[in-house]
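batch_manifest entry 22 of 60
target: beta-glucosidase
source organism: Streptomyces axinellae
requested by: lab member K.T.
priority: normal
notes from requester: please return tokens only, no post-processing; we will run our own comparison against the previous entry in this batch. if the run fails, retry once and flag.
--- input ---
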Amino acid sequence: ERVAAPAGEVRFPQGFLWGSATAAYQVEGAADEDGRAPSIWDTFSRTPGKVHGGDTGDRACDHYHRFREDVALMAELGLTAYRFSVSWPRVQPAGRGKADQRGLDFYRALADELLARGITPFLTLYHWDLPQALEQGNQSGQSGQGGWPARETAYRFAEYAHLVAEALGDRVQQWTTLNEPWCSAFLGYGSGVHAPGRTDPVAALHAAHHLNLGHGLAAQAVRAAAPGAQLMVSLNTAAVRPRSGSAADLEAARRIDALANRVFSGPMLHGVYDEDLFADTAHLTDWSCVRDGDLAAIHQPLDALGLNYYTPTLVSGPDPDAAAPDGTPVRDDGHGASAHSPWPGSEHISFHQSGGERTAMGWSVDPEGLTELLLRHHREAPDLALYVTENGAAYEDVPGADGLVHDTRRIAYLRQHFTAMREAMSRGADVRGYFLWSLLDNFEWAYGYSRRFGAVHVDFATQRRTPKASALWYARVAAAGRLPDVDPYPDAGAGPE
Ligand code: PNW
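--- output ---
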């Protein structure tokens, strides 16, 4: 039987882009082909104990060889945009110097295939796969002391950006510098649950600044090489909420907002670091890594802002009741298990889920957080177009007897988040498009292949792709520009189970 949707039509403007997103290391595979050198994620995932089940991106979805089939799939679903990332060590294996033509040719062919099918390519320059050679810091010969904590990496990133923009600027208009620099800095160098797996709070803070600098220098490099480019950055700015109105909880929210959001949005969008960020971390660094002229270099005009949203961040201040018996704060923040906090100087703050249904990542389903986030950025940067560059959910997707995945909870999740996005738009947010994370089940970083975010199921043994019920539902939304009144799958749209 059919389930009626909540009352009221939810319709999107003409030309609104309905897309999907992936990232190079999560889907491409072909890790050792055509001159590609290792990235920090190859090294990390090949190190025992770092990734669930010892999984690596060596084969992933084999998208490097199957991209034509994957683009055809997007076209069949009626998607009008595709957000992908370029693998830095595929196009510039040493992280400096000469490009590898074969790598660039792959992305040219991908862009051409998309354009031929009327799908707008959105290219991201950096989705976490730093060339291993740059992490090694081969300038000084010291091993393991390069990477984003080193200023040099920002300059190398700009050089790489210039080279990609020269090669693809004729066919790609939509350029994103960084994806979620928070994860690169604080999961990569702070808690160590992401590559390169360092656990040094000072290195993490310096990485944040050099990612900001890299963003600004790369933005300038792309503009120089591809004058028609539309530029943006994708931030996972979190809607940070205090658990109560107590002074301690409000203070916790202020501190985490500085470290999660303002450390990036401040310099990139407004040309400033807020004083409270410096004060909160003064015992760790004097921030002398911020040199004269850096803020101006970082603060480049952008055309749009990309927001990745999964769940809000709910925090509380020091609270004896919330601490484990050994005194460590409760950290149900969905950032993975680590003895090291990803919040330099704010290790005493506790994190909570906001209640209600959770996805297979343990993240609360909270669509109001998306409305909140879009409206916040609309207020703070009223001139920027907004894109939801990632949103989606992992569920335990098991194919039914008919071989299909009836992922009705994902359909309910999408309906709720599309409605929340539309709500922000009707209150003024200039949202131009939505990118579902993800097109395909893929390599979910520290979780390996154990978490499935795809609208399309991937059988990794055979590489067979099978659209889930949610993909067919999403195709209907993309075709009609509105949510269906009635969800066509028997048990779909019923909301949380
Ligand atoms: C984002 N956290 O990753 C990435 O941009 C995607 O590549 C990824 O697959 C997707 O979200 C789903 O996880 C995140 O711990 C990874 O807060 C970790 C966190 C946030 C985002």
